[in-house]
Amino acid sequence: MIEVLRAGVCDLVMDRGRPGHAALGVPAGGAADPDALAAANRLVGNPDDAAGLEITLAGPRLRFPAGGVAAITGARFAARFGSGGQVAWNETLLIAPGDTLDVGAAQDGCRCWLAAQGGIAVPAVMGSRSTFLPAGFGGHAGRALKRGDVLALGGERHPVRRLRADPPAIDVASPLRLVAGPQSAWFDDRGLAALFAGSYRVAPTSDRRGVRLNGPAVTHARAELPSQGVLPGAVQVPPDGQPIVLGWDGPVTGGYPVVGAVITADLPRLAQLRPGDALRFSTVDVAVARALATGEWSIEEAV
């Protein structure tokens, strides 16, 4: 059991998502970096797809009445145990009965993922325990956590090894890499130069539905088209020319031209962008994108 003594900015129960329901208008959703959540689950002895918490910008204060085993991966946040013990990132954490885990503000990036042994036991909706905020279902009552919430944990307690995870290297200073989108030919040299030579800032209105950007306007030949299927990472360009990178809870169809799509290897970086961050783009071909889509977390015994 986990008691929420203080809620963070946006604490959501998440697993790897609910793919296969786009025909009903429901995106796959799930953790913005599913590999980071899977690594946290491995550190506590859970299956990769067990439900944990996705914590954004500033986190909650949680109490573990019976103690437990937890792990946190992703961006580093200011964090401490109520007992004064150190909170290590990317490692198995042993929590004493009655102790609290206080996750403060993000020190870099935007999101981290917390797993607890047994996984967070909430009902599955359409095959997933992930929260889908736009429709208010899944997760814990279809919403972000708030003070006073109690989260049940599944399974039985079992001994675990002290493990450490080594995340794949991410170059936060380099451009986000795109492959060409289905309407890339609609964009003239001026529009493409604006996109790839310009610098953008993440807008405050960004959320899990989409990362909205402010910067050079990207011009193109047509403003709208019949709706087409879209996925997280697709870069849509509306009539005002300000790109929107679709997020994990974004629409499954869209009527704006898609100039490109963020490659799989760079989606974890997309998950860590926060309002005000600077962003640039570059382009690669599909063969390079496929070759780069191999980054995995390694797990080893903690010393």
How would you sum up this structure, described in words?
The radius of gyration is 20 Å and the shape is elongated. The chain has 2 domains: 165 residues, no CATH class; 117 residues, Cyclophilin-like (Cyclophilin), CATH 2.40.100.10. The strands form 5 sheets. The chain has an 8-stranded mixed sheet. A 5-stranded antiparallel sheet has the order 6-8-4-1-10, with no helix packed on it. The model has no long low-confidence stretch (mean pLDDT 93). The chain is built from 4 helices and 22 strands. The chain has 303 residues and is mainly beta. The two termini are 29 Å apart.
Rg (C-alpha, Å): 20 Å
Distance between the termini: 29 Å
Proportion of residues in β-strands: 25-35%
Q: What is the tally of helical segments? A: 4
Query: Which structural category fits the helices and strands?
Result: mainly beta
The level of helicity is 10-25%
Return the average pLDDT rounded to an integer.
93
How many discrete structural domains? 2
* Poorly predicted runs of 5 or more residues: none
Order of strands side by side in the largest beta sheet? 20-13-14-17-16-19-12-21
Task: Give the beta-strand count.
Answer: 22
Shape: elongated
| H and E order | EEHEEEEEEEEEEHEEEEEEEHEEHE
